[in-house]
Amino acid sequence: MAIVSQHKIQQQLHELAANAARPFVSWTEPLEDIDPVSFFMQGPSCGFRERFFWSDRSGSTIFVGLGSAYTIETEETDGRFHYVEQQRQRWVEQIERHGEADMPPLLFGGFAFDPHQPRTSVWRGFPAGKLIAPTVLLSVKNGRTLLTVTLPTDGVERDMERIGRLFRRIEELQPVSATLPALVSDEEEEKERWLAAVRQAIASIRAGRLDKVVLARSRRLAFTGTIDAAAVLARLREQQPFAYLFAFEQDGRCFIGASPEQLVQKEGEMCQSVCLAGSVRRGSSPGEDEQLGAWLQADSKNREEHQFVVHMIRRVFSSVCETVEMPTAPQLLKLPHIQHLCTPVVGRGCQEPSVLRLVEMMHPTPALGGTPRERAMEAIRSLEPLDRGWYAAPIGWVDADGNGEWAVAIRSGLLDVDKAMLFAGCGIVAHSDPTSEYEETNVKMAPMLSSLGVMSND
Ligand SMILES: C=C(O[C@H]1C=CC=C(C(=O)O)[C@@H]1O)C(=O)O
């Protein structure tokens, strides 16, 4: 049996486009279960220059997009979220939905961490904000798989050839190859320089200029051949089961990661977030692991670091929700390489109509920037020898109703043909120890290193 009725979809789209009253049409059709990473893998060879992958923490909501039917892009600084939200509303008015129309049109994308920071060539193609409505979207939600094709009514024919190629491929999807090229060089940005930046940050905090700042560093790897983003994604999926998996690729450059950190989710009048800050490695035995966890929960430096995030998120939620629920003490979130202090937050009666507005209010939380926010951003600009680009920034999706889910793009890296640049940061407070913070960044890079087939050497 054909997995997807190629002929039917193509015929429907032709007919719909001919009679459409709006500039875009979409057709949604149920699909048999297929491997979403294998689907993602088909993008480049079928001629799609853009592709994305999203899986939530439970793995029950997955979106894979190939190509771009509509792109919202901005280099604005202060007005970028507002601009993107306005364009989202315009997009919704331009599209006619058909087939299983319960699938609202979806935009996926991300934002730069700090649009005021000058962009280097490393992040070419990743502007201050960019959201894509894909030409072909695979969505898995509540155990149901759907395929949506979206096309401009005046250009249906243009995309048909590659859509046809994709349909033929998904009839007999090949499993994702686990082969990765070998590492040829591993260059971390100067350790001494980073440690000096952390010392300076601690001095500023002790002098009372700010309370907390998150400082990040990078590591550049080179390989013997092209890194296959689908293979990396398949390994992340296997190795990081409770993380948000994300990938955003254009013209062969792919920002990819497995983040444990939700920024915000909105579904109707309910919104959720997670305060995540304060970390320690996993133990090498159950006994040591438990001891480390108990130490983390009691450690005043980590509790302080965590508390700044709790205050800020509670303040934002309280300003837009009728009720806010959160536990009084942080819980432990145990991930394969690291454990974190974690406080989940639920808001009800949310007055904001779009998740993008919540993203704007939340970013950057003190888990990624610091506190007070503006002073921390200034400290990052002056102390951190790095172009963060989309690292530590919001990544996620929004639908036609303004609902959506966004993660913070940490535990991530940028793949560029045979090179990878990995990122990790740490919250610095008055009693931080620079060497331990450095070691913590190594632990935070371990998931990406492992997914690239490079063992972490800490
Ligand atoms: C900035 C990162 O982690 C943040 C999230 C959780 C715990 C953190 C910490 O304990 O420092 C960081 O705030 C990163 O992984 O690059």
UniProtKB/TrEMBL annotation:
Transmembrane residue ranges: none
Residues binding Mg(2+), per UniProt: 305, 440
Record bears the keyword Magnesium: yes
Annotated catalytic residues: 212, 261
GO molecular function: isochorismate synthase activity
Residue stretches making up the Chorismate-utilising enzyme C-terminal domain: 191-444
Cofactor(s) demanded: Mg(2+)
EC number: 5.4.4.2
Keywords: Isomerase, Magnesium, Menaquinone biosynthesis, Metal-binding
Residue ranges of coiled coil: none
Catalytic activity: chorismate = isochorismate
Pathway terms, separated by semicolons: Quinol/quinone metabolism; menaquinone biosynthesis; Quinol/quinone metabolism; 1,4-dihydroxy-2-naphthoate biosynthesis; 1,4-dihydroxy-2-naphthoate from chorismate: step 1/7
Keyword Isomerase found: yes
UniProt record similarity statement: Belongs to the isochorismate synthase family.
Protein function: Catalyzes the conversion of chorismate to isochorismate.
Protein name: Isochorismate synthase MenF
